UniProtKB/TrEMBL annotation:
Protein's name according to its UniProt entry: Pseudouridine synthase
Keyword Hydrolase found: no
Keyword Isomerase: yes
Source organism (scientific name): Paenibacillus arenosi
Record's function text: Responsible for synthesis of pseudouridine from uracil.
Length: 318
C-alpha cells in the first residue's frame, strides 16, 4: 500500500547565483554556508518535486558548480495544520510572504495547550490566513505569556522559522518590554544576573536558584511614581520563562497585578493581569537580511494604569 503524501503549496523560493570566485564550490556548501539551511531542511528538499534545481534541472548530486550556475530552492509546505481556524480578531503590525508580526492582546494564549485546546491566538491567525486562501502553518518564533501583551513574531514557512530561531539562539533578536512594578528599583538602572529554574514545589512557577539556568535582564526606570511604583523598560539578554517577572520580584519590585509573583500586593489598582508589555522587537529579516524593527503601543488597560499611578503620585505631592 502506497502512502498518500499530503498536498503542498509553494511557500518561498530561494535563488543563489555562483560567482567567479566560487567556481568549483559544492552544492551542499551553497546550501549550508551560503543559504544557511539546516541539514534537516536540506533532507526535506529531496522529498519535494523540483525542490532543488541547478540551472532548471533537478539535482542532488555532489559535482562542483560552475560560475554562472543558478541554484534554486523551492520551499513547499504540506497543507496540513492541526490548529482549527476560529474567527478571533488579530491586529497585524506587518506581514509579507515570509513573516507575520502581530500585536498580541492581553489574556490570550498564543498556542493551543492541554488547558486551552482552542480560543488561542493561533486559532485566530490560522482563520485569518485561510480566509485569504493561504495554507500557511502557524510557526511562532517566540512566545508571550497569556497575560502579556505586545509584539509577537510568526514565521510563515520552515526556512524563515529556522533562520529566525537561529537569530534567537545567537542573541541577534532585540526585545524591549515595558513593565509597571511596585516600589522603586535601586539602583534606578541596572542589570539582574540571577539564574532561574522551576520551583520544585509549584512546577508552574519559576524561582531564582544557584542551580538554575543563567538569566540576565537589563532594566531602566522610566518614571518613578513617588517611590510607590515605577514604570520601567527591560531588555532581555536571555529568554527564560517568566524571566522579567521573576527578576523584578528578586530585586524587591514585583510586577503590578502579578497574581503568581505578587499575590500579597498592597497597591490597589484596576489591573486584572500582570503589567507587562512587549513594546519593541528588532531582528534581521530571514530572506533579505535587512535589520527591521516593530513596535506595539500600550494597550488600554496599561494606559489606564499609568494614569492612575500619575494621579496617585500627584495627590501624594499635594
Amino acid at each position: 500500500m502506497t502512502d498518500v503524501q499530503p498536498e503542498t503549496w509553494d511557500a518561498a523560493e530561494l535563488t543563489y547565483c555562483i560567482s567567479e570566485d566560487e567556481a568549483g564550490i559544492m552544492l551542499r556548501t551553497v546550501l549550508l554556508s551560503r543559504l544557511n539551511m539546516s541539514r534537516r531542511l536540506i533532507t526535506r528538499l529531496k522529498r519535494v518535486e523540483g525542490g532543488l534545481t541547478v540551472n532548471g534541472s533537478s539535482t542532488y548530486g555532489h559535482k562542483p558548480l560552475q560560475a554562472g550556475d543558478v541554484v534554486r530552492v523551492r520551499i513547499a509546505e504540506p497543507q496540513v495544520e492541526s490548529i482549527q481556524p476560529e474567527p478571533i480578531p488579530i491586529e497585524v503590525i506587518y506581514e509579507d510572504q515570509d513573516i507575520l508580526v502581530v500585536h498580541k492582546p492581553p489574556n490570550l494564549v498564543v498556542h493551543p495547550t492541554y488547558g486551552f485546546p482552542n480560543g488561542t491566538l493561533a486559532n485566530g491567525i490560522v482563520h485569518y490566513w485561510r480566509s485569504r486562501g493561504e495554507q500557511t502553518r502557524f510557526r511562532p518564533v517566540h512566545r508571550l505569556d497569556q497575560e502579556t501583551s505586545g509584539v509577537l513574531l510568526i514565521a510563515k514557512h520552515a526556512y524563515a522559522h529556522q533562520q529566525l530561531s537561529e537569530q534567537l539562539q545567537r542573541g541577534d533578536v532585540f526585545k524591549r518590554y515595558v513593565a509597571y512594578v511596585e516600589g522603586n528599583p535601586q539602583p534606578a538602572q541596572g542589570t539582574v544576573h540571577a539564574p532561574i529554574d522551576r520551583d520544585p514545589e509549584e512546577r508552574h512557577l519559576r524561582i531564582v536558584t544557584p542551580e538554575g539556568y543563567p538569566s540576565t535582564t537589563h532594566y531602566e526606570t522610566i518614571t518613578n511614581y513617588n517611590g510607590e511604583a515605577a514604570k520601567i523598560k527591560c531588555v532581555l539578554e536571555t529568554g527564560r520563562t517568566h524571566q522579567i517577572r521573576v527578576h523584578m520580584k528578586h530585586i524587591g519590585c514585583p510586577l503590578i497585578g502579578d497574581k503568581f509573583y505578587n499575590p500579597d500586593t498592597k497597591l490597589l489598582t484596576s489591573m486584572k493581569r500582570h503589567a507587562l508589555h512587549a513594546a519593541e522587537l528588532h531582528f534581521y529579516h530571514p530572506m533579505t537580511g535587512e535589520r527591521v524593527c516593530f513596535t506595539a503601543p500600550l494597550p488600554a488597560d496599561l494606559v489606564q494604569l499609568e494614569q492612575e499611578l500619575e494621579q496617585r503620585a500627584e495627590r501624594q505631592e499635594q
